[in-house]
Amino acid sequence: MDWTGYGDSTRTGDNKYVLACFRADANLSWVVDLRSFLNIPELKYKDYSPRRHHVASNPRVQARLRRGLGDAELTIVDAQMYREDAYFGLVDKGAELGGDFDWTTLNDLAADGMLRDSPFGLTNPDTGFGFPADGTFRWRESYSDKLEELPAFDPTDLKRRAGGKLRDVEVLAARAHSIMSPTEYRELQIIVNEPMLRLNFPRNLERVKRLAHVFDEEHAKSVPLLNDLVGHLAEASGVPHGYALQMASTDPIREDQSTNSDHIQAADIAAGWAADLLLSTNNDYRALARQVRWITVNGIAVPA
Predict the structure, then answer these.
(1) Cβ atoms of residues 7 and 178 within 8 Å
(2) pLDDT at 126
(3) 135 has pLDDT over 80
């Protein structure tokens, strides 16, 4: 079975980053219907939105659209929550804005927090899976040309390699969160911490294959970092090194043009729809969670 996920993103009016994904087995006949109904070559939310009332006038197309959106997997990264945590953390220590720290400091701390809470933080001994002190189950080699040793969790270096800005980290963290569902994340955590479970190579290999994702062309610098992460998770969960290298060589995480993929076009619609719904419900995440497969906010699963 092809478990690959396909994603696209947008930003809300209050600058939350919303990433929507659809799995390869999702029924996307509604995408073809909606594209035909709107008479456009490529389905984009910016084209659908001003004509959504026209779409709603056709009960069949509207019903299929709403059912189709139910297969979406949503990942939201809210940078403002991290900025506020950083701000109050510094103020509690007696620091003052403008004297002891500035907005650049808050953005840097927010970026660190995003990466710490994402799957990239799994190598962080304070927040990760709790790898043995000798590093037995630590991913040792990255998938760069030189197969350099993967360093310990270093948010500053990850931010630099992603592009150096907070917005780069938002994309990287969101994509890292999106490649596994909350259930898959927990399953991998259990496998990594249970030596006997790591011996079930065929099952664990299938779990790791589910991490494969194709994102719309937006942030090429995040792709090699995410492929390194897949390799890390593969070896940490018991997939032999040779198989892990072979998997990485096929680029399980990549980008593609949305014109080539109904799945990515569906994700574009879902991301825009979710952003508008959050705006109209004053960020009622639970209302949104009731309408999709799953949703996480800063890595935390939202109950329906």
Answers:
(1) yes
(2) 53
(3) no
Q: Is pLDDT at 140 greater than 70 in this prediction?
A: no
- Mean confidence (pLDDT) of the chain: 86
Residue indicated by tokens 């899976």 = 129
Angle (CA) 53 297 151, round 5°? 135
Looking at the chain, the whole-number percentage of residues with pLDDT higher than 90 is 67
pLDDT digits (tens, 9 = 90+) for 42-87: 999 999 999 999 999 999 999 999 999 999 999 999 999 999 999 9
Cβ atoms 228, 172 nearer than 8 A:
no
Q: At what angle do helices 201-209 and 182-193 cross, to 10 degrees?
A: 150
- Which string of b and e fits 94-104 if b means at least 16 CB within 10 Å? eeeeeeebeee
pLDDT of residue 71: 97
Q: Please give the single-letter amino acid code of residue 202.
A: P
pLDDT, tens only, 104-118: 999 999 999 999 999
CA 115 to chain centre: 12
Would you state the structure tokens that stand for residue 266, as one six-digit string? 């569906």
Question: Could you tell me the pTM of the whole model?
Answer: 0.88
Tell me the three-class secondary structure of the chain, residue by residue: CCCCEEEEEEECCCCCEEEEEEECCCCCHHHHHHHHHHCCCCCCHHHHHHHHHHHHCCHHHHHHHHHHHCCCEEEEECHHHHHHHHHHHHHHCCCCECCCECHHHHHHHHHHHHHHHCHHHHHCCCCCCCCCCCCCCCCCECCCCCCCECCCCCHHHHHHHHCCCHHHHHHHHHHHHHCCCHHHHHHHHHHHHCCCHHHCHHHHHHHHHCCCEEEECCCCCHHHHHHHHHHHHHHHCCCCHHHHHHHHHCCCEEEECHHHCHHHHHHHHHHHHHHHHHHHCCCCHHHHHCCCCEEEECCEECCC
